[in-house]
Amino acid sequence: MLMLDCSSESGSFSNLFETGTGVNAPADASGQSPAHLAACGGEAFFLLWQLQTGANLNQQDCLGEAPIHKAAKAGSLECLALLVAGDAKIDLCNNSGQTAADLALDYGFLECAKFLRTIQHTQTMKLRGQSGYSLSDRHSLQREGPNAQKQESETSRSINRKRRRSDDLVS
């Protein structure tokens, strides 16, 4: 098996599959898959290829880092965008308890950190919206207001009245 590190050139990545390495098989002793190596090297094209062949976006190496952590440490906005589009877990923590956004910030990649925080915030807001909660102010969540409940009740009464009328006509 061919061993690669994060500083490898993109031409060398294709050799991984020529030597028979599986898409999620660790390519080295630290448990890094080819997707880890691509993300670490900022190789968006190779990472895309990995994702299309079924790479596990959330596979963690011996440090607890997934490809999203590697891309954040490398400052690769392209790789981060691919991973986010592929539904990688943004809030996944490594063994030190750091998310990819934390690592991007620690390594000085402010644009990457901002991108990840924005995506995280957007996902959080979508989850809150799907659960019936809405933000009424900056500090608290409230259930939908009484007007929404009243409207729902009126709609169901109207449907029930129509059913009764059609039952009367049939009798």
Task: Please characterize this protein's 3D structure.
The protein is mostly helical and 171 residues long. It has two domains: 10-131, Serine Threonine Protein Phosphatase 5, Tetratricopeptide repeat (Alpha Horseshoe), CATH 1.25.40; 143-171. It has helices at residues 10-18, 34-40, 44-52, 67-74, 77-85, 100-106, 110-130, 146-170; strands at 133-135, 141-143. A two-stranded antiparallel sheet has the order 1-2. Helix 2 packs parallel to helix 4 (67-74), helix 3 (44-52) runs parallel beside helix 5 and helix 4 (67-74) packs antiparallel against helix 5. The longest helix has 25 residues, at 146-170. The chain is globular. Mean pLDDT is 75; it is low at 1-5, 7-20 and 132-150. It comes from Serinus canaria (Island canary). This is Ankyrin repeat domain 37. Keywords: ANK repeat, Repeat.
List strands and helices in order, with pairings.
Layout: H1 10-18, H2 34-40, H3 44-52, H4 67-74, H5 77-85, H6 100-106, H7 110-130, E1 133-135, E2 141-143, H8 146-170
Antiparallel strand pairs: 1-2
Keywords: ANK repeat, Repeat
Region (Disordered): 133-171
ANK repeats: 30-62, 63-95
Quick rundown:
With 171 residues, this protein is mostly helical.
Overall domain count: 2
Order of strands across the main sheet: 1-2
Instruction: Report on the biggest sheet.
Output: 2 strands, antiparallel
Oligomer: single chain
The percent range for helix content is: 55-70%
Structural class: mainly alpha
What share of the residues does DSSP label as strand, in percent? under 5%
What is the CATH topology assignment of the largest domain? Serine Threonine Protein Phosphatase 5, Tetratricopeptide repeat
Structural Rg? 24 Å
Order of helices and strands: HHHHHHHEEH
Number of helices: 8
Total beta-strand segments: 2
The unreliable regions are 1-5, 7-20, 132-150
The CATH class of the largest domain turns out to be Mainly Alpha
First and last CA, distance: 80 Å
At the fourth level of CATH, the homologous superfamily of the largest domain is Ankyrin repeat-containing domain
Instruction: Write the CATH architecture name of the largest domain.
Output: Alpha Horseshoe
Write down the overall mean pLDDT.
Answer: 75
Keywords: ANK repeat, Repeat
Region (Disordered): 133-171
Pfam families: Ank_2
Protein name: Ankyrin repeat domain 37
